[in-house]
Amino acid sequence: MRKIKVDLKRLKYDIIIGKGAISRISGVISGIGFKGPVVVISDRNVRALFGKYISKGLLSLPNRVINIDVPASERAKSIDVFQATIRRIAKATRKHKPLIVAIGGGVVGDLSGFIAATFRRGVPVIQVPTTLLAGVDSSIGGKTGIDIPEAKNLIGAFKQPEAVIVDTEFLKALPERQLVNGMGEVIKYGVIKNPGLFRYLEHNIAKIFRKDDAAFARVLYDCALIKARIVEKDEFDAKDIRIILNFGHTLGHAVEAASGYSDGYNHGESVGLGMLMASGIALRLGILTQRDHDRIKDLVKRAGLPLLAGRLAVQKVMGAYSHDKKFVKGLNRFVLPVRIGGVVVREGISENLIKAVVREHVREQN
What we know:
The chain is α/β, with parallel strands linked by helices. It has two domains: 2-172, Rossmann fold, CATH 3.40.50; 176-361, Up-down Bundle (Dehydroquinate synthase-like, alpha domain), CATH 1.20.1090.10. It is 48% helix and 19% strand. The protein contains 14 helices and eleven strands. It has helices at 25-31, 44-58, 79-93, 106-118, 132-138, 168-172, 176-192, 195-209, 213-233, 249-258, 267-285, 290-302, 314-321, 351-361; strands at residues 2-7, 12-18, 38-43, 65-70, 99-104, 125-129, 143-148, 151-158, 163-167, 333-339, 342-347. Strands 1-2-9-6-5-3-4 form a seven-stranded mixed β-sheet, with helices on both faces. Helix 5 (132-138) runs parallel beside helix 7 and helix 5 (132-138) runs parallel beside helix 9 (213-233).
């Protein structure tokens, strides 16, 4: 079992990583002195796979436990599902402030975190990610949100968890596409901050897909540590430090929105495409070498992430990109790689250049 302390000065919490980590949840809840009802938000897929395992982890709690399932898709991050879930919690908890436990992937974590940030003007939340993507990224740092048709996460809030508990047993049951989904974020961390992690992936990526315990532990710890240290310096994304975590997300989110948040392109696949497009922009600007561009492209390909988005309209991707939250005073902002392990933030990049790179990576609908 490994532990990372996130120290935000005004509050601190642990990221606990390891096999059987969910068994620590009762101790975490007892440790914060919470005695009210515990609302466990998950989805049917997670419940079907791990229902008994989850129940065992919560068994020793004296608290009343309320289970709520949400759709097992990006659709769960809609205003309708948010409202329906809030109403169910309100009915079940009445006069008591609950603690929310989010057990699932990034969708469940984002929705649950946003509920915790807004219900009764804020209630505590514990994040228990069950996917590689959520374990290395979305469960850490307090960003929460829901989607509207125009763009992803356009409605959101910051809500730091009481703890993040990453049990590697959940990852063992993931289908290959979910591992691929997570690799989009894992590769991101290597590019933005850790060339050693990037090299490790180049030489050991097959171990991830074999679900090797040591490989999981290495990747989860390295990525979580990078994010924790960045979040400590820029909790509310206001100092231009945390923005580097958005490498691949500007055009990646646009691909997700343009596809209608369908199963066509999940988050990690979209981020993979976004990283390729950001690398293409950097190459055209002359700030990234062809060699490093090719290394990024090769690792994205070997991770099973798409190199080309099909069945999408370039104009639809560009329209979704125009709603990106990183625009400042009308200027676009991109996180661009300058080498493996280093990125810069550039503003006001030519729309023609962006569109040209998008055209290289999006195959128009017939």
